[in-house]
Each structure stands twice: as C-alpha cells, then as structure tokens.
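wait is this the right file?? whatever heres the structure
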C-alpha cells in the first residue's frame, strides 16, 4: 500500500509499504495490477464528482450514484457481481473481481469502453500498470489537519466478503465484451496490444455492422446497451393488434425491426414470448405449428437485422427505427444514462441519500437501497420466478409446492398494498388471498423462513394486536439472474378468490394463459406443473368459461373473475370466511383489552347468594346479609380457639422474599393467608409373600 504525505493529493512510490493488520491513519491506496507481470484481476471504475460537473449535471452526486448503479447493473446482467463504495465527497467506486489474471491492457480497454457509455468514469486508475485506488475502509483526505472521512461500502460487509471470496468467472468477462461490443470497436486506446477485443472488430450499430451471438444469430449492439422498443410497437407485441397494417406478417416484421434497432438479441425475444410478455407476437405468427413458428421467426429476425443495418448505413446520423416518418430527439446529458433500466430507476425516485454502510463501525447499519419499494417488489418477483424453477427448492417444497407458490404471490400483493417490502399482513389475510386455511399458511411461512436461502425473513415477532412482520428477501444465489431479467408488472390475478375453490393448480394455469394459442405441454412448462394437473386445470377453466381450446392451442377468455366468483359461490364463501375471521379478531382484541383492566376488588364483585342449608333462617339471603360464624367455643380442654385472623404466621421461618410477596398480595389484592397442615400420605403396603412384587393394572 502507498501512503500520502500531502493529505491525499498524491501517492508517490517512495511511500509504498507492505500490508499490515493495522488500519492506516492517513490516506492510502493499493495497487490495481501486478507491475512485474502486467496482469490484474480487478476492474476498477472510478466515478468522479468533477466529471459529473463537467458534463453539466444538475445534481452531480445523484448523477454519479445513477451511473455507478448502471455499471453494476451491466456487470450483473452478464452474470457477475460487484463491490461498491462511496467517498465523503460523493464519488463512487465499482470493483469487479475476476477469477483469473487478465492483461492490464484488456482491463484498460474495458474501462475505456465503459467510460464511453458513462462519462463520469475516470480511467486514471486503470491507465497504467502502476495504477492505484483507495479501497473501502481507507481514509479519504486530510484538510486543515483533520480527516474528512473514510471510503464506505454501499453494500453489507458480509455480501462484500462473499463477492471477494467468489470472484466472477471468465464467462462473465466474455459476456461483458459482448455487452460492450460497440464501445470496444470504437475505442482502441492501446493499438500495440494483443487483446481479445482486437480479434473481433465491431463497428457501432449506427454504421450498420452486425455481430453474432453465442448461438450464431446476428444482432445489432447499441452504444448504450439495449433499450425498450418503440411504445406503440411494444404494445402491439403484447396484444397482437395489427390494425393499420396490411397483414400480420407486416406488423410482425415492424415489431422485429424495432427490437433489432433497440439492441435486442434473438434469444431475448424468444424468452419474452415464452414468458407471455410478447404474447401478441406469438399470435401474429398465424396458424402454424411450433416448428414452423420457430423457423418463420428466425427468418424474420435475420431479415429485420439485415434491413435495419442497411438502413443505418445509409443514414448514420439517424436514430433509426421502424417508422420512416418519426425519429427520437437526442437525449440531454442527464437523461442519456437512463438508457439502462436500473440506472433510470436509480436516477429517479430510487436515489436516496443518508448514512451508508460503514466498514469501521462496530454496529453497522445497512445502507439504503437504490431502488424504491415498488422496484424492490418487482425484483423479488423475479427471484420467486427463479426459485419456482429451482429443482432443489421445488423438491424441498414437495406436494405443498402449489400452495407455497400461491402464498408467495399473496405476499407480493400484500407488499404492493403496504407499498413496502415489509408487509404487515396476518395469516388470515394471506389465507383469504391464497385460498388456504390460516393454519396451513402459518406452517408454510415457517417452512419458507427456515430455508437455506430464504425468500422471506421474519423481522418482527407478533405480540398482542400486531402479527408477525416479514421482509421480502432476494437470495444471493438468485440476485444476479433476478437483476438481469426484465421486471414483470401488471396485476396478480392468481390471488382472486374466484379461483380459491378450484385449487392452486387451476390458478397457476390461468396465470400463464394469454391471447396467443399455446399447447398443453407449453402451458405445463410455463406454469411449472405436471401434464396431468395442467390438463385437469384446463378442463375446469373451460367449464368456467375462462379458457378456450382452439385448433392451435389454448387461449384465455375475457371473462370477469368476479362473475365467476358469484356463479360458483366463491363470493359467498369468501364473505363467510371474512366474517368468521373478523369475529375471531374481535374476540382476540377483547381478550387483549381484558388484560389491561384493573384488578377486581371486593366492592366490585356482585353479591352472590349465600351457600346455606334450605332449613336455615338465612336461606335465600345475599352473601352480604349472612353474618360471619362465631368463634369456636372451646376445645377438648375447654379453652377458646383463636380465629384465623388472630393467628400469627411464623415469619421467622419464611424467607424474606416470600414475606414481601405475602404482604403485597394482602395489600394490593386483599388476599388472605390460610394455613393448613396436609396429612402425610400413608406408605404403600408391601406384599407379604417372598415373590417379587409386580404392579398390575
């Protein structure tokens, strides 16, 4: 490590010292590369506040935070993970550690490519084999003899340790090159180097040069990564409405042109079609078999890439799209970084300021998330989608898997209603949304929170009127894939009580149906159900007029679930369950209120009839009217026996703590001490015979 003698302005080589367990008391840096071999495993991206000011950002700190989040999203989309920190001045560092050493020239080229996409990145730490960087926990700067602060992590320390111990694979390095293909083709800062990026020379999409993905299918990378298609064509891809076009094929090609121009890959389009997001695009393939649809889509995609590339060559300065009459205006400097979905969220309401995670704190607090609660819920839904397809987790759920999946959807709805990832919903409320008894819901919640990588975590144990409070958690093993996948918005109709009486399999099957005809095998795969369960669920949905079988497959009927609930009696059953739960809640609240009432005294108790014999003169009188019995006259020797009130307890034989308890009971509750000598139990008789005694029932 190197120390600074001028308060953090420079770090000369003569102040280099070996590492030690002692924390540095002045600004210090560590080497990014190994100068002897010219290799390194660390990709450092330094987001500088001064560069944000230079590009005219209105809020430099927010611009830096947004771009740092966008860089992290790019690496996570490639399957990797990063460590991030922040300085007291607002600058941020993003560290990507790889499993194998890489030539520093290649690392520098990737840093330059990212700097071309995100202008707040300073390439200085990566520009030389002697590059240095301040790491998390190191002192920042010294001003007027006083330390300004430390570099602080923006992620939990435990997560940072795991990322450092499990660096990114070289597959992430290759996918990162594919993601930055345009920038790597334009920027070649070291022409004399022998790197992987020189072997594949790629021109930007505006020049019309296409490359092939891992499957050998062409696509057009964009300088700022993939973006959403044009809004009207994206809507047609979801609905399948081809009004305004001469044929379905013309509308389909227009959608594919827009997706190709937006930087999409063929595999990403197919994935969205399988998930049902682009169900309209499937419907536009007309009445074809699955094999013919795949072949036609592949041909149309290659034609779209070719046509968009040819159009871009003739119009290099045009923001090419499908429509020849409109073009998108250039974005301002602050808006360009929002091309990445995660960066757009970070640059908006998701950016929060405040205390971040401190490395040197004994009781650290996790820093605020860059996503708002709504976005965190969408990210958690992606994690649930991945978990449902995890064979290890699904086998642990066993036969209860459909019920647990319904409960997870109910948790997502509860979080949306509470507008937080910590919903305060009781088991009875979740039971009404999932269609199961509240005892079953409680059992499944216990199973979910006790898993090795739980999706929920109980943060507050319920007491009194408040029930247990859970937090939605994205497991570390799913986080990279959850971030890479597109978020799934829209209503969650699975939790409607119209489907509660029909079972979880029916609700899950209804969830994946769309306007595009789909085969039974495909529905079973999308719903993660067996073929037998799917066939039975489709039969029930057809009887309820919620699904229809066509010559090409099954489609969803546009019928209101409320009508189905009234027709099947599910509405009455739901109202009866609701009334039962309200009655149980009121009874429980009354019990809790009774706990807070003051203790009853003799004056508060109602008068009760005295327990007298029928021939007594006081028969039928109240207990207050019956006189106390007289003292016993005499005993065997003719002496009067004192009453119980006159008998003194042997205080000296009772421990002091018990004496204080007895006095407290007498003064506060009006208790009376009763002394009674219990007779000893006579010993059990032994058998008189010489044989061993055996107890028999």
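ok assuming it is, sequence goes like this
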């Amino acid at each position: 490590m190197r120390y600074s003698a001028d308060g953090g302005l420079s770090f000369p080589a003569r102040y280099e010292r070996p590492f030690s367990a002692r924390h540095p008391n002045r600004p210090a840096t560590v080497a990014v590369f190994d100068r002897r071999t010219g290799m390194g495993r660390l990709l450092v991206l330094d987001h500088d506040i001064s560069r944000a000011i230079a590009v005219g950002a209105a809020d430099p700190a927010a611009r830096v935070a947004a771009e740092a989040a966008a860089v992290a999203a790019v690496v996570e989309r490639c399957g990797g993970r990063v460590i991030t920190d922040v300085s007291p001045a607002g600058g941020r560092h993003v560290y990507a550690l790889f499993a194998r050493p890489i030539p520093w020239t290649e690392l520098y080229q990737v840093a330059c490519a990212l700097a071309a996409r995100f202008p707040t990145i300073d390439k200085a730490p990566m520009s030389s084999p002697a590059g240095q960087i301040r790491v998390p926990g190191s002192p920042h700067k010294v001003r007027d003899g006083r330390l300004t602060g430390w570099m602080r992590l923006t992620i939990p320390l435990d997560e940072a340790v795991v990322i450092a111990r499990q660096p990114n694979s070289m597959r992430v390095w290759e996918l990162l090159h594919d993601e930055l293909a345009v920038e790597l083709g334009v920027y070649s800062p070291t022409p004399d180097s022998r790197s992987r990026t020189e072997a594949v020379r790629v021109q930007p999409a505006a020049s019309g040069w296409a490359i092939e993905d891992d499957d050998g299918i062409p696509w057009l990378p964009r300088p700022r990564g993939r973006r959403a298609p044009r809004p009207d064509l994206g809507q047609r891809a979801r609905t399948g409405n081809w009004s305004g076009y001469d044929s379905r094929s013309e509308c389909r090609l227009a959608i594919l042109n827009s997706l190709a121009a937006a930087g999409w890959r063929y595999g990403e389009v197919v994935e969205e079609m399988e998930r049902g997001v682009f169900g309209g695009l499937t419907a536009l393939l007309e009445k074809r078999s699955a094999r013919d649809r795949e072949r036609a889509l592949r041909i149309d995609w290659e034609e779209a890439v070719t046509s968009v590339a040819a159009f871009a060559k003739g119009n290099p300065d045009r923001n090419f799209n499908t429509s020849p009459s409109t073009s998108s205006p250039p974005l301002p400097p602050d808006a360009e970084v929002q091309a990445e979905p995660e960066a757009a969220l970070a640059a908006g309401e998701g950016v929060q300021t405040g205390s971040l995670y401190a490395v040197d704190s004994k009781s650290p607090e996790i820093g605020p998330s860059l996503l708002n609660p709504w976005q965190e819920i969408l990210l958690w839904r992606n994690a649930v989608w991945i978990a449902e397809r995890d064979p290890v987790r699904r086998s642990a759920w066993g036969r209860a898997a459909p019920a647990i999946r319904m409960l997870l959807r109910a948790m997502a709805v509860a979080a949306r209603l509470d507008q937080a990832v910590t919903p305060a919903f009781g088991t009875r409320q979740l039971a009404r949304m999932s269609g199961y008894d509240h005892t079953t819901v409680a059992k499944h919640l216990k199973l979910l929170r006790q898993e090795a990588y739980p999706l929920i975590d109980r943060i507050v144990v319920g007491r009194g009127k408040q029930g247990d409070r859970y937090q939605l958690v994205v497991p570390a093993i799913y986080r990279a894939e959850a971030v890479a996948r597109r978020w799934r918005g829209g209503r969650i109709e699975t939790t409607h009580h119209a489907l509660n009486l029909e079972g979880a399999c029916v609700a899950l099957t209804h969830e994946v149906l769309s306007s595009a005809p789909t085969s039974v095998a495909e529905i079973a795969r999308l719903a993660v159900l067996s073929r037998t369960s799917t066939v039975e669920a489709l039969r029930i949905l057809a009887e309820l007029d919620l699904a229809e079988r066509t010559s090409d497959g099954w489609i969803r009927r546009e019928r209101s679930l409320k009508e189905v609930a009234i027709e099947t009696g599910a509405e009455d059953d739901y109202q009866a369950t609701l009334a039962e739960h309200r009655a149980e809640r009121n009874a429980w609240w009354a019990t809790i209120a009774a706990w807070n009432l003051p203790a009853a005294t003799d004056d508060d108790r109602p008068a009760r009839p005295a327990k007298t014999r029928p021939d007594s003169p006081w028969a039928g009188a109240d207990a207050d009217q019956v006189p106390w019995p007289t003292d016993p006259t005499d005993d065997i020797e003719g002496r009067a026996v004192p009453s119980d009130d006159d008998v003194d307890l042997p205080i000296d034989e009772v421990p002091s703590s018990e004496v204080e308890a007895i006095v407290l009971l007498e003064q506060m509750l009006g208790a009376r001490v009763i002394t009674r000598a219990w007779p000893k139990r006579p010993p059990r008789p032994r058998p008189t015979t010489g044989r061993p005694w055996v107890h028999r029932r």
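Residues 186-208, 315-368, 631-655 have pLDDT under 50 and may be disordered. so i think its the right one actually
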